[in-house]
Amino acid sequence: METMETFESLVRAEFAPTTSYLNTASNGLLPARTVTALHQAALLRAEGRPLLPLYDDVEACRAAYARLAGVPATRVAAGASVAAHTGVIAASLPAGAEVLTVEDDFTSVVNPFHVRGDLKVRAVPLERVAESVRPGTALVALSSVQSADGRIADLAAVREAAREHGARTYVDCSQSAGWLPMEADAFDFSAAVSFKWLLGPHGAAFLVVPEDFGGLSPVLAGWVAGERPWDSCYGPVQELAHSARQFDLSHALFTYAGLRRSLELLEEAGLPALHAHAVGLADRFRAGLARLGHEPVPAPGSAIVSVPGLGDRQPGLGESGIVVSDRAGNLRAAFHLYNTPADVDRLLDALSR
Question: Which domains does the chain have, with CATH numbers?
């Protein structure tokens, strides 16, 4: 009971939305402490004070994400987007290599492989990924949770199939990092953005690489990728960082200043509590939909619920203060730590009318 009260009091201290916000799969809400940190960081620049302290925030975020992912911080690169991280991986593949992807997966996970023009990119339904890995498959790339409908990939089966055939694995955790336990060490590469379930501002994304970098080349490396960045500002970088930091992109300092506080909040709340809370609310919504005669896309255990045929209700719901998404005609609701049973019931009541 005390743990639940602590969780709820922590949430109340950080969030006061004026809507029933059920759209974390698009953007997470910013905690109060994050907003304060962003304001303080902006004042440094407005007042002409040094920005050097903000670089400490980058390293704090790297370490916090590493703890969340279950890997050493030396394996985490700090970048700007999943698409950029995917591009680095795509650039490492030899011409003609086969990349196995998921049909209708999020564009940032798949498009960089297509624009290469000389890779064999194959797409299969999510439930057939593991069985579709074959000899000659170089890389399996997929989202841990599908953005469009919340379906959770059978990552254990994908991992085993990839190992059996000597393929590498790349998992985008953007729709799971922050509510679903991660095992980044089980895959060659994984990535996630900061602005969804991690509750941070836009402009940051993390990439986890193997200890040996998995054959990647830091094709986007700038001065921050140097072992001694401040000695790498002019001319070619003479010595790349000995860690995954060699894959860093120039840091959006204000973003990391805010994200540091968001990640601290997630750690304080605890992933088991976050997971139980979010999935519990999603299950409450699924049960209510059944009573109303609606059947969501099957996604057991997911914090995202997508309901076919109800996407056209999104504008009206928004006008009434209930924020959800319309994805290909489906109404998508996503549940996180700041949501309550009252939010679920309010949405169900609106859908019943």
Answer: 2-30+268-351 (3.90.1150.10), 44-267 (3.40.640.10)
Residues in the chain with pLDDT < 50? Answer: none
Q: Which residue, 134, 139, 133, 55, is CA-closest to 94?
A: 139
* Total Cβ atoms within 10 A of residue 331: 25
Q: Torsion-angle region of residue 312: left (phi > 0), alpha (psi -120 to 50) or beta? A: alpha
Task: Mention every residue, 6+ apart, whose C-beta is less than 8 A from residue 141.
Answer: 86, 89, 99, 100, 101, 105, 109, 110, 113, 169, 170, 171, 172
Q: What distance in Å separates the CA atoms of residue 288 and residue 310, rounded to the nearest whole number? A: 15
Q: Is residue 238 classed as helix, strand or coil in its secondary structure?
A: coil
Query: Rg of the Cα trace of the chain?
Result: 21
Smallest Cα–Cα separation from 174: which of 304, 30, 1? 304
Rounded Cα gap, residues 85 and 272, in angstroms = 28
Count of CA atoms in the C-beta half-sphere (13 A) of 4: 4
pLDDT attached to residue 328: 85
Convert the pLDDT of each residue in 123-171 to its tens digit.
999 999 999 999 999 999 999 999 999 999 999 999 999 999 999 999 9
